[in-house]
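Lay summary. Proteins are chains of building blocks that fold into shapes, and those shapes determine what they do. In this project we predict the shape from the chain. Here is one chain we studied, written as its sequence of building blocks.
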Amino acid sequence: MSLILKSFIYLIGSVFFSWSAAISAGLETTRELNVLSDELISIERQKKEVAEKFQFNSTACWKEFAVNDCLIKVKRLQYQMLAPLDQREIGLNAKRRELKEILRQQRLSDKAEQQTHRSAHDAALDKTSPIKSKVTP
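And here is the predicted shape, written in a compact code that computers can read:
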């Protein structure tokens, strides 16, 4: 086998191996991102329910004599219900940022690896190609 063919086969094999490893790691990270998105949607739904409950309770306060005291209690209750949801959302957003950074680093390393393989392949071709002489007009 010629040196060019060997280097080409090596290049294709290494690119395929790195590509398949990157795809499997990327799929797992993408799957985790989808789960996080579903959880964030669930949190948003729960926050809407809390807001609706607040709206209902604050409307009911206007039917009482001590409106301000009732509104303060309702607002405090809303904050107490939203606090754990906000904390969970902050944690999920941090995890999502980490996963997106992992995917970004993966793409950058794959791109750098492909460029390295291409330059190695080009160097092998330059070594085996015949020297071209310059023709002067």
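What the prediction tells us: The helical segments are 3-61, 67-128.
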